[in-house]
């Protein structure tokens, strides 16, 4: 997406000066409402100082997955008496500058994603040199320890991909299409590679422009129409699953649509049988545990993982499990 850069210096400081910057107009409002509701229900559960933690993610605008991560972090922040700052940018250089802005603000802890680790390394190292503890979350498990982070909380993307390959084998699939909606995202590449590692059939990667759902739909539809032997389409994010369903209908394909991640729409379509299965990495846990672990480190020098990632997934969600989870997806915690 083309963006004007002249206001970046001012905007970076402003982004971290606000306690909440939502992923989308509706998602941000929901997260803010959740924070206010949690605060109204009671005081912090601890009497430790009111430390300030900043979370900086690679989320693009309107990505509901990150609303769930933010919701978990916000609720942990209320419990732990934390002043929580959230900002995001899907362009790696901009995300790195947001980390720099958090360092300049002298926050007490930083939570960051490493979807494009090479661009983030210098900013993470600068935070650590400033004495600010860093936890990585969601993406960058392989680089987290190398960059000096205390711990990584999330899903091992290769393991998650391998779980998908195993599930496709159980379902008797022969040819899968793996949809990558963000070029350069190492986690996405790892997911598709993991599928290839365990799937007995063949896997083909398809790169699409994830910021344009019409482009995603037309690209998938064209591929399915051209190759009727594809019997499974795997999207790498919940918002893209329904778009793949529409593309399947356009192409007259009989391919099963499966997806990484969970939201209310995915839970509904799993229950209806429109989707085959979903891979849940429990984003609420990623946000909640990241804040909680930073608090534990500040309070008691605790760390988790022993240098290994603290895994929040994968969990394969099928039709039989969808109904039980639908309630949680609607409240924004799954």
What does this structure look like?
The structure is a single chain. The chain has 13 helices and twelve strands. Helix 1 packs across helix 4 and helix 2 packs parallel to helix 3. Helix 11 links the parallel strand 9 and strand 10 (278-280). The relative contact order is 0.13. Helix content is 50%, strand content 17%. It has a six-stranded parallel β-sheet with strand order 2-1-3-4-5-11, sandwiched between helices. A six-stranded mixed β-sheet has the order 7-6-8-9-10-12, sandwiched between helices. It is elongated. It has 334 residues and is an alpha/beta fold. The longest helix is centred in the last third of the chain and has 18 residues, at 283-300.
Feature tags:
single chain, 334 residues, alpha/beta, six-stranded parallel sheet, six-stranded mixed sheet, 13 helices, 50% helix, elongated, disordered N terminus
Number of strands: 12
Please summarize the sheet with the most strands.
6 strands, parallel
| Separation of the first and last Cα atoms | 29 Å
**What is the H-and-E element order?**
HHEHEHEHEHEHEHEHEHEHEHEEH
Structural class: alpha/beta
Strand content: 15-25%
Whole-number radius of gyration?
20 Å
- SS element count, helices: 13
How do the strands line up in the largest sheet?
A: 2-1-3-4-5-11
Report helical residue fraction. Answer: 40-55%
Shape: elongated
Unreliable runs = 1-27
Mean pLDDT across residues: 89
How are the SSEs placed, and which strands pair?
Elements: H1 8-17, H2 25-41, E1 52-57, H3 64-79, E2 83-88, H4 92-104, E3 109-112, H5 117-129, E4 134-138, H6 141-144, E5 152-155, H7 157-170, E6 175-180, H8 186-198, E7 202-207, H9 213-226, E8 232-235, H10 238-251, E9 256-260, H11 264-272, E10 278-280, H12 283-300, E11 310-313, E12 315-317, H13 319-330
Parallel strand pairs: 1-2, 1-3, 3-4, 4-5, 5-11, 6-7, 6-8, 8-9, 9-10
Antiparallel strand pairs: 10-12
